[in-house]
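Appendix B. One record, verbatim.
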Amino acid sequence: MIVQARCTAANKGGLECEVAGLRGFMPASLVSPWRIENFEEMVGQTLESLVTEINPGARRLVLSRRAVIEKQAADARAKMLETLEPGETVEGIVRSVRDFGAFIDIGHGVEGLVHVSQLSWERVEKPEEMLQPGQKVEAVVKKVDRETGKIGLSIRDLAENPWKRADAKYPMGSTVRGTVSRIADFGAFVKLEPGIEGLIHVSELATRRIRAVSDVVTEGEEIECRVLAVDPAEQRLSLSLKALTKSPEADADAGADASEEDAPPEKPRKKRTGPLKGGVSGLSEGARFGLKW
């Protein structure tokens, strides 16, 4: 039974109460779900409590305010899970930060998870650099599992998705400038703006064969490259560094063609009208001395 208990005194064990003329006692562990440092502050207050035990001989009741608070929170949680819908914006408090994301209390003890990929449109290596426990934040509800009670939240959805305008801002064939943000065995990632990264595959780094990506570019370096392909739906951008560099073979061929075009034309040879020296038809030097050929 839920009763109204008026606190009359406090001691180390808990609170002494009065309920409709009956003495009641509320143990310290049943006063609240959270720790209370000074029970004296609660003397004189009337607390909604649950009767957990009755001693008719001593005309005494054992009470629990904690049970009432937990029941109210459970009811509020169930109601929130029933009414919460994806796309809603909620306010909450950061309860804990982990490597994979942050847990946000959105009210009545209901917690949702902001995965590290949903913190920002930029790549986030350490969530603790963005959020701290106790910090107030806003988030968008991504999904609600009413069976398990799990809620997925997103902070990055509060900002515009930069990929929506990527195909117009970085059209195929255009030359762009960015900063090398990461290097991998298969290529280098180039940051063009917050939230937009493109990949230069190792085959597009240079016209020559290279041993390692770091032989061509380094992290933090600012470079120019050409856009090969852009896919806003998949959030992919393919870039090329070698497309802006002419190959040595092409330069050599171009130089050869240019030298042939610049060379002066050959002068036409004059036709010979006189007899040729030597041979069987003419009088050779050997014939003069009686030699026969």
